[in-house]
Amino acid sequence: MPELEIPSWLISFFTTLLAAFFGYLIAVKKFKKERLWQEKYEAYQDILSALEAMTLWANETYCSNKLIPTKGTRLAKNDPWLAFSEARRTIAKSACIGRLLLPKPVIDELVALESDLWNENFRAEEEQYHPHTHEESEAIAQHAQNVENIVKPRLGVIIEYARNDLK
């Protein structure tokens, strides 16, 4: 049987082609991993910003209803409830579509937060008081304090989850 000789340039060509293909696969894998990390980072950033906005709202609302000097920050368009509503919307959205990126314990924490805030809203709305009175001011201050007590512990928990998840 005659011996078949493969030209060296053909071996070099296929070796280069194979190396380029493996380089491409490695680059695509790295890109996807970095892109996923970036998406997770942005999701955590949105969630933590929303939790911070809720805490700020609670603190500012409590202080203003108790006639205590506040940090002096201006909330969204001078409507304190708008900032709180936007933060609630961000948390609800993250709990729903965050399942794509975020681990189950984070989603469970967000769902529990939503549930606790929902219950607190019902509790606050059930209180009977006359508008523009001291009782109304006290009820709003109590509601704000309860919201802060609900949100603040979860802020630390989610920060820890984010640190571990983004390592």
Residues in helices, as a percent range: over 70%
The percent range for strand residues is under 5%
Please count the helical segments: 4
Q: Shape from CA axes?
A: rod-shaped
Oligomer: single chain
Q: Work out the radius of gyration.
A: 27 Å
How many strands, which pairing sense, and closed or not: the largest β-sheet?
none
Mean pLDDT: 89
Instruction: State the end-to-end CA separation.
Output: 60 Å
Low-confidence stretches: none
In sequence order, what are the helices and strands, one letter per element? HHHH
Please state the structural category: mainly alpha
Strands, count:
0
Protein described:
This protein has 167 residues and is mostly helical. Helices cover 78% and strands 0% of the residues. It has 4 helices and no strands. It has helices spanning 8-65, 80-97, 104-126, 134-165. Helix 1 (8-65) packs antiparallel against helix 2 (80-97).
Brief account:
With 167 residues, the protein is mainly alpha-helical.
Provide tags for this entry:
mainly alpha, rod-shaped
Topology, please?
Elements (H helix, E strand, L loop, with lengths): L7 H58 L14 H18 L6 H23 L7 H32 L2
